[in-house]
Amino acid sequence: MKSLLAFLAITSLVSPVLAGEALSLPDLDGKPVAALDAAGKKAAVIFFVSPYCPTSNTFAPEMNSIVKDFGGDFVFRFVHSDTTVTEADRKQHATMMEFTEPVLTDIAQKLAKQLGAKTTPEVVVVTPDGKTVYQGRINDLYLGPTKRQREIKTHDLRDALTALRDGKPVANPRTEAMGCGIVIAP
Measured in Å, how far apart are the chain's first and last C-alpha atoms? Predict the structure, then answer.
């Protein structure tokens, strides 16, 4: 009995990503998409976005450029975890931002909670074995919530994806994302 209780206690600490449980979220057409499925590629790149966050919207061209430059080696998802975003706003946002990869709805905030996302824009890179190898900002355009630099000096996400593509470890696996907070429901 003690060994069964110990087993249950240990397995309850394993996150669904590590346990291999596939979390599916609906895309804009309502079709379920396995959010973290790398589809035979090096990793899944998850962008947490919001149509109501000007900082997030500022990064849309760079996110699209990264998708174009790294799409052969990685899968990309754009995720709305803000509970106040309407279906119409999600669809309009995807069109206006010209997102070409799946845009997913995370109203229950399961993915945001699982990955620890707290900001839009924030990016999380997850390998096929469920390991988070990068989390944080896209680049250093913003050094604080309202502190925008004139030019980007550090391309954090591009550097991380280049390292992974080249089979190297990510030099800086954690950075602080700047933008609008995701209000996580209890």
Answer: 33
β-pair type (24-26, 32-34): antiparallel
Ordered by where they begin, the domains of the chain are 31-181 (3.40.30.10)
β-sheet with 132-136: strand ranges across = 103-105, 74-80, 43-48, 122-126, 132-136
Token pair, residue 104, equals: 């997913």
In three-state secondary structure terms, 90 is: helix
Identify the three-state secondary structure at position 162. helix
pLDDT of residue 41: 97
> Which residues in the chain show pLDDT less than 50?
1-20
Q: Are 56 and 120 in contact (CB under 8 A)?
A: yes
C-alpha distances in Å from residue 24, one per residue of 58, 64, 136: 28, 23, 22
Q: How is residue 20 annotated by DSSP?
A: T
Is 112 within 8 Å of 79 (Cβ atoms)?
Answer: yes
Let me know the angle formed at the C-alpha of 67 by 62 and 70, rounded to the nearest 5 degrees.
Answer: 115
Residue 182: DSSP 8-state: P
Q: pTM higher than 0.85 for the full model? A: yes
Q: Give one word for 47, left, alpha or beta, with left for phi > 0 and alpha for psi -120 to 50.
A: beta
